[in-house]
C-alpha cells in the first residue's frame, strides 16, 4: 500500500515523532525503488511537486491546523522532513547521472560525479604535411602568374613517361631514371607497358593532347624511382613541373619567369644562376641554382661551413629548358607545330625544397608519419 499523509489530530511530541517516522520510512522504501530517470522524475514529483506533493500535503495536513502552542515544534519537524526529502531526491539524481555516463561506455574512470567544469575532450585537428604545404605554396606562385594546375596518373605508360618525351626505346638516357616497372607487361608493345612514372613530365604530353596552345600549366604530383631509401632518397617523392607554350616563347621568358618565382617563394634577395645541362625533352637544357638562402650565398655560417650549399653559396633547385621540337612532333596534330610554337618547361623536387626550407636533415622523416615530427607544422 502506498503511503498517504494522514491528517494530524494529536500534536504531542510522541505522535509527531511517530508520523515523521512513518513518512521517512515510506521515503526510504520509495527511494530504493528508483531505477532509472523516469522513476526518479516520478519520485521527485510525488514528494516535491508544489501541487499535491507529499511535502505540500504535510504543510496542509500537519501544519495548517496545528494549535498555536505546538506550531513551532511541528514546523521544526516538518523542516527536518523537507531537508531529508530534498537530500534523497538530489542523491538519486546523482546516481542516475553516473548510470548514464556508464551506459555511454566512458570507461571506469568516468565513475563518480561528473565535473561539468572540466574541459571537454579535445579532438586534435590535422595539419598540412610539410611537403604538401611546400607544394601548395610553390603552385600558388605560378597560379598568380596565370598558370593552371594539371594532373595525371601515377601508373603511366612507357609512351608518356619516356617515348613522347624524346627518350627513344633502349636509349641510355632512360638509365638516368631508375624505373619501377609493373610486372607482367611483356606481352604488350613497349609503348603500352605500365610503370610508375619517374617524373611529372608525362603530364606535359597528356595536357598538350587535350588543350591547344597557348598553355601555361603547373603540375604537382608523386613520382617513384627504384632508389633505396636514405637521408636524401625515397622511392616515392614529389615533383612540381611547369610548362608554358605559345608563339615566340624564348629562353628569356624561362629565365624571367623562374627568377621571379624563386624570389616570390624564397624571398626577394635570392639570386638565380643557370648552368648548361641535358634532358632529352628540352633543348637547350639547364639546371637552375638559387643563391643559398641559409648562408646568404657566403658559403659560411659564422665560422662554420654552410652544409646545405656545401660551401658553394648555391643550391640546385630544378631542371629546365626549351621544349625540344621532337616533343612537339608527338602532339603536332593538336596545334603544336614546332615551326609555329615554342615553349619552356621545368621540374623540381618538392621534398628537397621542403628539406632545405625547414632545415630537416632526413627525407625519411617526411614519410614515417610520426606526429611528434609532423605536429611541428600544425
Ligand atoms: N623530369 C626531370 C626529372 O625528373 C626534371 C625536369 C627537367 C623537368 C627539365 C622538366 C625540364 O620539365 O624541362 O629529372
Give structural attributes:
378 residues; seven-stranded mixed β-sheet; two-stranded antiparallel sheet; 11 helices; elongated; binds 3,4-dihydroxyphenylalanine
What does this structure look like?
The protein has eleven helices and eleven strands. Helix 2 packs antiparallel against helix 4. The chain is α+β, with helices and mostly antiparallel strands and about 375 residues long. The chain is about 35% helix and about 20% strand. It has helices at about 15-30, 35-50, 55-65, 70-105, 130-145, 160, 200-210, 250-265, 325-330, 350-360, 370-375; strands at about 150, 155, 195, 215-225, 235-245, 270-280, 280-290, 300, 305, 315-325, 340-350. Strands 1-4-5-11-10-7-6 form a seven-stranded mixed β-sheet, with helices on both faces. 3,4-dihydroxyphenylalanine binds near residues 241, 321, 345, 346 and 347.
Bound molecules: 3,4-dihydroxyphenylalanine
The oligomeric status of these chains comes to single chain
Judged by helices, strands and strand pairing, the structural class is alpha+beta
Order of strands in the sheet with most strands: 1-4-5-11-10-7-6
Spans of at least 5 consecutive residues whose pLDDT stays below 50 are none
Question: In sequence order, what are the helices and strands, one letter per element?
Answer: HHHHHEEHEHEEHEEEEEHEHH
Overall mean pLDDT score?
91
Distance between the termini: 66 Å
Radius of gyration computed on alpha carbons: 40 Å
Q: Proportion of β residues?
A: 15-25%
- Compute the number of helices: 11
Helix proportion range = 25-40%
Main sheet properties? 7 strands, mixed
State the total count of DSSP E strands. 11
Shape: elongated
